[in-house]
Amino acid sequence: MFQYNPDIHYPTETESRVVIRFQDCDPLRHLNNAKYFDYFFNAREDQVPKLYGLEIIDLIKTYKAAWVVYNHNISYVKPAMVGEWVRIMSRILWYNHNTIVVEYYMTDDSKTQLKTVLWSTMRYVTLAEGKSTDHSGAVQDFLKATSENLDIASMDIRDRVKALVAEFRKG
Question: Organism's domain of life (predicted)?
Fold first, then answer.
Protein backbone atom coordinates (compact mmCIF):
# COMPACT_ATOMS: atom_id res chain seq x y z
CA MET A 1 0.00 0.00 0.00
CA PHE A 2 1.23 3.50 -0.75
CA GLN A 3 2.56 5.26 2.32
CA TYR A 4 3.05 8.96 1.70
CA ASN A 5 6.27 10.36 3.16
CA PRO A 6 6.55 14.18 3.00
CA ASP A 7 10.36 13.91 3.09
CA ILE A 8 10.46 11.98 -0.17
CA HIS A 9 10.30 13.58 -3.62
CA TYR A 10 8.13 11.35 -5.77
CA PRO A 11 8.79 11.45 -9.51
CA THR A 12 5.73 12.48 -11.48
CA GLU A 13 6.71 10.66 -14.68
CA THR A 14 7.31 6.97 -15.24
CA GLU A 15 9.49 5.61 -18.03
CA SER A 16 9.88 2.20 -19.65
CA ARG A 17 11.98 0.88 -22.51
CA VAL A 18 10.28 -1.79 -24.64
CA VAL A 19 10.66 -3.44 -28.02
CA ILE A 20 7.83 -3.46 -30.55
CA ARG A 21 6.81 -7.07 -31.10
CA PHE A 22 6.12 -8.66 -34.49
CA GLN A 23 2.72 -10.05 -33.43
CA ASP A 24 1.54 -6.52 -32.56
CA CYS A 25 2.24 -5.07 -36.01
CA ASP A 26 0.28 -4.73 -39.24
CA PRO A 27 1.48 -5.94 -42.68
CA LEU A 28 3.36 -2.63 -43.13
CA ARG A 29 5.40 -3.47 -39.99
CA HIS A 30 3.78 -0.58 -38.06
CA LEU A 31 2.52 -1.10 -34.53
CA ASN A 32 -1.22 -1.68 -34.84
CA ASN A 33 -3.14 1.41 -33.67
CA ALA A 34 -5.06 -0.51 -31.01
CA LYS A 35 -1.86 -2.07 -29.62
CA TYR A 36 -0.51 1.31 -28.50
CA PHE A 37 -3.01 1.10 -25.64
CA ASP A 38 -1.59 -2.25 -24.50
CA TYR A 39 1.97 -0.92 -24.60
CA PHE A 40 1.01 2.21 -22.65
CA PHE A 41 -1.05 0.46 -19.98
CA ASN A 42 1.49 -2.36 -19.51
CA ALA A 43 4.36 0.12 -19.16
CA ARG A 44 2.53 2.09 -16.46
CA GLU A 45 1.47 -1.08 -14.67
CA ASP A 46 5.13 -2.16 -14.57
CA GLN A 47 6.51 1.21 -13.47
CA VAL A 48 4.08 2.33 -10.73
CA PRO A 49 5.13 -0.46 -8.31
CA LYS A 50 8.83 0.20 -9.00
CA LEU A 51 8.65 3.96 -8.49
CA TYR A 52 6.05 4.25 -5.76
CA GLY A 53 5.86 0.85 -4.06
CA LEU A 54 2.21 0.63 -5.01
CA GLU A 55 0.31 -2.24 -6.54
CA ILE A 56 -2.93 -0.74 -7.84
CA ILE A 57 -4.76 -3.95 -6.94
CA ASP A 58 -4.04 -3.17 -3.26
CA LEU A 59 -5.91 0.14 -3.59
CA ILE A 60 -8.78 -1.62 -5.33
CA LYS A 61 -9.06 -4.25 -2.59
CA THR A 62 -8.76 -1.73 0.25
CA TYR A 63 -11.14 0.94 -1.06
CA LYS A 64 -13.45 -1.33 -3.09
CA ALA A 65 -13.17 1.12 -5.99
CA ALA A 66 -11.25 1.45 -9.26
CA TRP A 67 -10.69 3.85 -12.12
CA VAL A 68 -12.61 3.19 -15.32
CA VAL A 69 -11.80 4.86 -18.60
CA TYR A 70 -14.49 7.02 -20.13
CA ASN A 71 -12.46 8.93 -22.69
CA HIS A 72 -9.30 8.45 -24.74
CA ASN A 73 -7.71 11.15 -26.87
CA ILE A 74 -4.82 9.83 -28.97
CA SER A 75 -2.54 11.42 -31.54
CA TYR A 76 -0.44 9.20 -33.78
CA VAL A 77 2.60 11.20 -34.88
CA LYS A 78 5.15 8.70 -36.27
CA PRO A 79 4.74 4.93 -36.50
CA ALA A 80 6.51 2.57 -34.14
CA MET A 81 8.03 -0.23 -36.20
CA VAL A 82 8.50 -3.95 -35.61
CA GLY A 83 11.71 -4.65 -33.70
CA GLU A 84 12.19 -1.01 -32.72
CA TRP A 85 13.11 -0.11 -29.16
CA VAL A 86 10.94 2.71 -27.81
CA ARG A 87 10.50 4.70 -24.59
CA ILE A 88 7.11 5.04 -22.95
CA MET A 89 6.47 7.78 -20.43
CA SER A 90 3.34 8.32 -18.36
CA ARG A 91 2.12 10.69 -15.69
CA ILE A 92 -1.05 11.86 -14.03
CA LEU A 93 -1.69 15.24 -15.61
CA TRP A 94 -4.65 16.24 -13.47
CA TYR A 95 -7.09 14.97 -10.87
CA ASN A 96 -10.07 16.17 -8.88
CA HIS A 97 -12.27 14.49 -6.28
CA ASN A 98 -13.25 11.56 -8.55
CA THR A 99 -11.47 11.82 -11.92
CA ILE A 100 -7.93 11.59 -13.25
CA VAL A 101 -6.32 12.31 -16.61
CA VAL A 102 -3.26 10.19 -17.39
CA GLU A 103 -0.88 11.16 -20.17
CA TYR A 104 1.15 8.53 -22.00
CA TYR A 105 3.62 9.21 -24.76
CA MET A 106 5.99 7.11 -26.82
CA THR A 107 9.29 8.15 -28.37
CA ASP A 108 12.10 6.43 -30.21
CA ASP A 109 14.79 4.90 -28.00
CA SER A 110 16.94 8.05 -28.02
CA LYS A 111 13.96 10.25 -27.08
CA THR A 112 14.42 12.45 -30.15
CA GLN A 113 11.28 11.53 -32.09
CA LEU A 114 7.73 11.56 -30.75
CA LYS A 115 5.62 8.59 -31.84
CA THR A 116 2.29 8.91 -30.05
CA VAL A 117 0.51 10.82 -27.27
CA LEU A 118 -2.51 9.47 -25.38
CA TRP A 119 -4.65 11.17 -22.76
CA SER A 120 -6.96 8.82 -20.83
CA THR A 121 -9.68 10.24 -18.61
CA MET A 122 -10.83 7.92 -15.84
CA ARG A 123 -13.57 8.09 -13.23
CA TYR A 124 -13.15 6.52 -9.81
CA VAL A 125 -16.10 4.17 -9.20
CA THR A 126 -17.21 1.69 -6.56
CA LEU A 127 -16.88 -1.99 -7.42
CA ALA A 128 -20.27 -2.94 -5.99
CA GLU A 129 -22.49 -0.35 -7.67
CA GLY A 130 -20.26 1.08 -10.39
CA LYS A 131 -21.12 4.54 -9.06
CA SER A 132 -18.75 7.47 -8.95
CA THR A 133 -16.99 7.91 -5.61
CA ASP A 134 -14.43 10.30 -4.18
CA HIS A 135 -10.71 9.63 -3.90
CA SER A 136 -9.76 9.16 -0.24
CA GLY A 137 -7.03 7.89 2.06
CA ALA A 138 -3.96 6.43 0.35
CA VAL A 139 -5.55 7.08 -3.07
CA GLN A 140 -5.71 10.80 -2.37
CA ASP A 141 -2.17 10.74 -0.92
CA PHE A 142 -0.87 8.97 -4.03
CA LEU A 143 -2.49 11.51 -6.34
CA LYS A 144 -1.14 14.47 -4.35
CA ALA A 145 2.37 12.99 -4.30
CA THR A 146 2.64 11.91 -7.94
CA SER A 147 0.41 14.18 -10.02
CA GLU A 148 1.36 17.22 -12.06
CA ASN A 149 -2.18 18.53 -11.43
CA LEU A 150 -1.95 20.96 -14.33
CA ASP A 151 -4.70 23.29 -15.52
CA ILE A 152 -5.93 20.99 -18.28
CA ALA A 153 -8.91 23.18 -19.09
CA SER A 154 -6.53 25.38 -21.04
CA MET A 155 -4.64 22.42 -22.59
CA ASP A 156 -5.19 20.69 -25.91
CA ILE A 157 -3.56 17.44 -26.99
CA ARG A 158 -2.52 19.00 -30.31
CA ASP A 159 -0.66 21.72 -28.42
CA ARG A 160 0.93 19.06 -26.24
CA VAL A 161 2.12 17.17 -29.33
CA LYS A 162 3.68 20.38 -30.69
CA ALA A 163 5.37 21.10 -27.35
CA LEU A 164 6.83 17.58 -27.11
CA VAL A 165 8.07 17.66 -30.72
CA ALA A 166 9.76 21.02 -30.02
CA GLU A 167 11.27 19.67 -26.78
CA PHE A 168 12.78 16.66 -28.57
CA ARG A 169 14.21 18.84 -31.34
CA LYS A 170 16.10 20.87 -28.71
CA GLY A 171 17.29 17.54 -27.41
Answer: Bacteria
Distance CA 18, CA 46 (A): 11
Confidence grade of residue 171 (pLDDT, cut at 50, 70, 90): low
Does the global pTM surpass 0.70? yes
Cα four-point dihedral sign 142, 145, 149, 150: negative
Q: What DSSP assignment string belongs to the chain?
A: -----TTSPPPS-EEEEEE--GGGB-TTSBBPTTHHHHHHHHHHHHHHHHHHS--HHHHHHHHTEEEEEEEEEEEE-S--BTT-EEEEEEEEEEE-SSEEEEEEEEEETTS-SEEEEEEEEEEEEETTT--B----HHHHHHHHHHB----GGG--HHHHHHHHHHHHHH-
Cβ(123)–Cβ(98) below 8 Å: yes
What's the start-to-end Cα distance of the chain, in Å?
37
What are the φ/ψ torsions at residue 46 (nearest 5 degrees)? -75, -35
